[in-house]
Amino acid sequence: MKERVNAYDVAKRAGVSQSTVSRVLNNYSHVKKSTRERVLAAVDELGFTPDEIARSLANNKTRTIGLIVGNISNPFYAETAHIILREARDYDYDVIIVDTDSDESSFDRSIQTLIGKRVDGIIVASVRKDNKKISELFKLNFPIICYNRKVDDDRNTNFVVVDNKQGAKMAVNHLIQLNHQRIAYISGPCTYSTFNDRFLGYQSALKENGIDYDKRLVYQNELSFDKVFQFSLDLMRNQNRPTSFFASTDHIALAVMDAAAQNGLHIPYDISIIGFDNIDIASSPYIGLSTISQQKKKMASLVLKELIAIIDKKSDQLIQITLEPELLIRKSTGMNTQIRNNR
Amino acid sequence: MKERVNAYDVAKRAGVSQSTVSRVLNNYSHVKKSTRERVLAAVDELGFTPDEIARSLANNKTRTIGLIVGNISNPFYAETAHIILREARDYDYDVIIVDTDSDESSFDRSIQTLIGKRVDGIIVASVRKDNKKISELFKLNFPIICYNRKVDDDRNTNFVVVDNKQGAKMAVNHLIQLNHQRIAYISGPCTYSTFNDRFLGYQSALKENGIDYDKRLVYQNELSFDKVFQFSLDLMRNQNRPTSFFASTDHIALAVMDAAAQNGLHIPYDISIIGFDNIDIASSPYIGLSTISQQKKKMASLVLKELIAIIDKKSDQLIQITLEPELLIRKSTGMNTQIRNNR
After folding, report:
1. Which of A155, A222, A286, B189 lies 20 to 30 Å from B168 when distance is taken between CA atoms?
2. Homologous superfamily assigned to A164-294
3. Domain A7-50: homologous superfamily in CATH
């Protein structure tokens, strides 16, 4: 395979035009039997996949969609990507995944890469809220939909999200009902809508329950395991330590749990931890992480279905869907036993 | 963006040939200043990314590689994919991930998809050992390299793997040294080299230690959580139950751990469990899974580096690298306390 074959090579080999190749591969009528046979023989000789080529010739579609994720090693992205990949196959679509490594400067390049690959549409699972590119593409009628994230210009974007503010309120209210007052919050930066909304929910739940906001209990930065582990460790070693943590992703809640173990703190007797996302491992009896479910299966199926409807021009309405979150109580949260020490 | 732009559109808009567009975008000399300006204006007007197009025009390269994984929701794949994605960016390459959902019938389609997208090379992280397509592509000088897997026709394939047989022997020998004799084995089917080699290592370690092979203790089938959970549960409820499990992936070892918890068995006092892969969560103090490290960071970096050397024609030798596995002892394995009951 010195040079890779394309429709032009097939046309040349068969001695016909590219449009004839297209007509044969699409089973159109009005093609002479001998011509059809010559084209199919050429396809065969060149080791070609007629359906791929036929598609792109016929309707200018690649039947490929792009999926932009923040970090595929975060199980939330990996597990939803897997659902999207599996279901896309049922729609006869392929998926190109781009991982921005949570580096916003690579976002525009990710979009360029996907458009350069001529994808029919894009699902954006991670993007900063001040991004302008998505609404630009939307205005150009390019099929694009946000998933798990929104951008500020939300009059000009399609999205499927969970109600993140409400979910965060549910998490914090659950801790408050267990008599926790000093509730640490671990999150990525508010430049992402998901973290911004969860932070609003955290603040709002505190306020509604008459608990003062204490910024010393709040981490809002890069969600690296090492940094969150260290922050949690330091906080837990404090005399007046928090009795509970709300981690805005399950993945990073595991770093908080590890810090608790390192500190010899028993979960939930000494410290309660709640996450967000309901990644698979959260339900393991060894982890047993209380969390907020994003209904990831429903959300992933829905975003794919809606994107394909947009591509197929079956929908020309703005798609803006907000799903209800769900509180899942497991063994990582329990009644605050140190209430006297901490007030 | 009713129609997406390409180099042809730029040429048309600028009133020049496609090769002139190519020459301008590659900064070749012998292009009139006014022509250059016209082309760049057209590029700008059409909202084009010159570098992408320039590349593909100039050297027929897309600077994109394909990565075929078995199931991206398995953290082994997700974590190695993340390393490959991050390091590929340093080489100025993009990566298209295809997830076969461990469905071999979709493997050929995955290859077709990637070649249809004109990738410069492919990393194959999951494929059955009897696959013929990989050596066919290799013989056609298409840059392709196996990672974590080998195929039977290994004279005609590049690969980077860990010594899976040796790794499995290390795992089983570790259990035997802890006085375990009844050692269950949980694995995917032997149609994959990785599982085949690990099974050979399991059998070999038993034999060298004079322990009879008991096929009732062996699961070799689809690695679905539910099926492995049920198999393990049934085995653990058996009167003459195994005192230890060797799970051929860490991901599925978690299903065995869950079955132990469901059965009220304490790890490692009642039952020892060892995995393979060293996924991130294995080192969590709550999981503490003993395992065999594949040196995934080194392996992932190496496979990418070697593939790019092949693409750049800096290497025309067969790449066949086998890394040494490493035994990591954590809290999930301990001395067999039931030795009398089980002999």
Report:
1. A286
2. Response regulator (3.40.50.2300)
3. lambda repressor-like DNA-binding domains (1.10.260.40)
8 Å CB contact between B249 and B224: no
Q: What is the ipTM of this complex?
A: 0.78
**What pLDDT sits at residue B338?**
75
Q: Which of residues 162-221 of A touch B (CB under 8 A)?
A: none
CA distances to A172, A240, B159 from A184, in Å = 10, 12, 47
What are the residue boundaries of the structural domains of chain A, listed by start? 7-50, 64-162+296-323, 164-294
Residue B98 has pLDDT above 90, yes or no: no
Residue A141, chain B, CB below 8 Å: the answer is: yes
> What is the chain B residue with the closest CA to A139?
B1
DSSP string computed for B52-66: HHHHHHHHS---EEE
Interface check for A140 against chain B (CB to CB < 8 A): the answer is: yes
A64 and B113 within 8 Å at the Cβ level: the answer is yes
| Superfamily of B64-162+296-323 according to CATH | Response regulator (3.40.50.2300)
One fold for B7-50 and B64-162+296-323: no
**First-to-last CA distance in chain B?**
73
Sorting pLDDT into bands at 50, 70 and 90, what band is B310? Answer: very high
> Which residues of B are less than 8 Å from A60 in CB distance?
3
Q: Does pLDDT of A37 surpass 60?
A: yes
- pLDDT digit string (tens) for A213-249? 999 999 999 999 999 999 999 999 998 999 999 999 9
Q: What is the tens place of the pLDDT at every residue in A266-282?
A: 999 999 999 999 999 99
Q: Which residues pair with B183 in a beta bridge?
A: B244
Measure in Å the smallest separation between the Cα of A116 and chain B Cα atoms: 7
Could you give the angle at the alpha carbon of B119 between the alpha carbons of B116 and B122, nearest 5°? 110
Name the minimum distance, in Å, from the CA of B343 to any CA of chain A.
30
Dist CA B104 CA B177 (whole Å): 38
Report CB contact under 8 Å: B115, A254. Answer: no
> Among all residues of chain A, which has the CA nearest to that of B66?
A96
Token pair, residue A331, equals 């063994």
